[in-house]
Every structure is written in structure tokens, then in C-alpha cells.
Design brief:
3 helices, four-stranded mixed beta sheet, Transcription Regulator spoIIAA
């Protein structure tokens, strides 16, 4: 189960808690999409306990689109970097 809390103070921060699974990715994507253009968007991952492959790919795409990932656990960061590496190697083919 994923819990999402939104706060804004010059930037919009979504604090995510719990597990991020495929069905949660759609919800977070929709929340990000309704924010004002030009707004700095942040995903605070401090309390994320588990992610699946869909979530890792989503987080990598968020970062590629200038969404800041704060307090990203080391294991999730490593998986995101691996996902980016796979994307780069596909582009080179």
C-alpha cells in the first residue's frame, strides 16, 4: 500500500510511504500531471519500503523529466541507475 502526502512551499513535494507498485505508478503520474507547469516537483522517498520494476522505471523517467528524487534509499538509487544504463544501451543500438 502506498500513502501519498502533498505539501507546497515554493515547490511541490509528494512524500511517498510504503510500497510503490505498478498500480501506484499511474496514480503518482496523474498527481504530477495536474501540477502547474514550471513548478518544481519533488518526490520524497524516505519512507518507501519496496518498489517493483515498473516503479523503478517510472522513477528513472521522473528524474529524466526534472522531477527531484529526495531521500532516495540506496538500493532504489542503484536500481534507477541500472534502469538508466539499460535505456542508454538501447539507444546506442
Amino acid at each position: 500500500m502506498l500513502k501519498i502526502q502533498r505539501s507546497a512551499n515554493g515547490r511541490v513535494v509528494f512524500k511517498l510511504s510504503g510500497r510503490i507498485e505498478a498500480e501506484d505508478v499511474k496514480e503518482v503520474r496523474e498527481l504530477l500531471a495536474v501540477e502547474m507547469p514550471g513548478q518544481q516537483l519533488v518526490l520524497d522517498l524516505r519512507d518507501v519500503t519496496l518498489v517493483n520494476q515498473d516503479a523503478v522505471e517510472f522513477l528513472a523517467s521522473c528524474e529524466a523529466n526534472s522531477v527531484v528524487l529526495e531521500n532516495c534509499p540506496a538500493y532504489i538509487r542503484q536500481w534507477i541507475e541500472q534502469a538508466k544504463g539499460r535505456t542508454r544501451s538501447r539507444r546506442m543500438r
